[in-house]
Amino acid sequence: MKSNQPIGIFDSGIGGLTVARAVKKALPNESIIYFGDTAHLPYGDKSTAAIQAYSVRIAEMLLRKKCKVILIACNSASSAAYDLVTEYVGKKAKVFDVINPTVDFIRENYQSSKVGLIGTKQTVSAGVYRRKIEELDQEIDFTSLATPLLVPMIEEGIYHDEISRNIIEKYLSDSSLQGIKSLILGCTHYPIIKEEIRNHYRELDEEVEIIDSAETVALALKSFLEYHQLVNKEKTVPDQFLVSDFTESFEHTTKTFFGEEVHLEQIPIWDELG
Ligand code: DGL
């Protein structure tokens, strides 16, 4: 691995740009190759087997593009395919997911407390967060809730308004989430509504820390690159934003997740497989 190789980041679609944005903030000199599998989104409702097949194929493409790191930005893909992708990639690149750095953060900061998770159906039912947190053996009372309306809500531009406030309130009032001290945002899209979630707890006068998995993985990646002297010194290659299916609407939503609209380039990744 060399420091001037790019960082590959992939997601089911455009939402993973929240992770790319956090990575850019933490590591401004890195060149990013972002891939959104817009032909197959959403992953949150797909089977584990399907997500595994997509993820390995995407990892192969990012390896061909000489990425030093492959970051699985999607929580659903992190749940379903991290082990498989890690095995497939071997020593050719370092694989990160969004779950392990978040579990490390919980281990360091939230022993003996009640920790909540919200995510897609796939992320919650796969139970990977639960298993990894329970393995810490730190008397953490873990609870999770699938919140499937939040992704389409955000993609439709419904946030920071009355409708989103009501939907968020409905989910967060679920009995399973009562008494939590921290809440993991286990989905690429949720950083967009982080402030609304914070406000929900503020209004109730409850102290709940919101854990943004995009930020935790960006900091973990930074520590890794610094430790291994793999931080890029000077950015010479521009970022690339690739998708498996292009629409203007996808391009337009990049602004929501990345903070600025970026040009998306469609690549024929699935042609060989059909
Ligand atoms: N990227 C997905 C995740 O983080 C959300 C969108 C989808 O379901 O594909 O779980």
Short description:
This protein has 274 residues and is of the alpha/beta class. 44% of the residues lie in helices and 16% in strands. It folds into two domains: 7-97 and 215-266, Rossmann fold, CATH 3.40.50; 100-213, Rossmann fold, CATH 3.40.50.1860.
Question: Which structural traits does this protein have?
Answer:
274 residues; alpha/beta; Rossmann fold; six-stranded parallel beta sheet; 11 helices; 10 strands; binds D-glutamic acid
Task: Please describe what this structure looks like.
- Helix 1 (17-26) links the parallel strand 1 and strand 2 (32-36).
- This protein has eleven helices and ten strands.
- Helix 1 (17-26) packs across helix 10 (213-227), helix 2 crosses helix 3 (75-89) and helix 4 (99-109) runs parallel beside helix 6.
- It has two domains: 7-97 and 215-266, Rossmann fold, CATH 3.40.50; 100-213, Rossmann fold.
- The mean pLDDT is 95.
- It is α/β, with parallel strands linked by helices and 274 residues long.
- Bound molecules: D-glutamic acid.
What is the element layout, followed by pairings?
Blueprint lengths: L6 E5 L5 H10 L5 E5 L11 H17 L4 E4 L2 H15 L4 E3 L2 H11 L4 E6 L1 H6 L1 H8 L5 E6 L3 H6 L6 H11 L9 E5 L7 H10 L5 E4 H15 L12 E4 L4 H11 L6 E2 L8
Parallel strand pairs: 1-2, 1-3, 2-9, 3-4, 5-6, 5-7, 7-8, 9-10
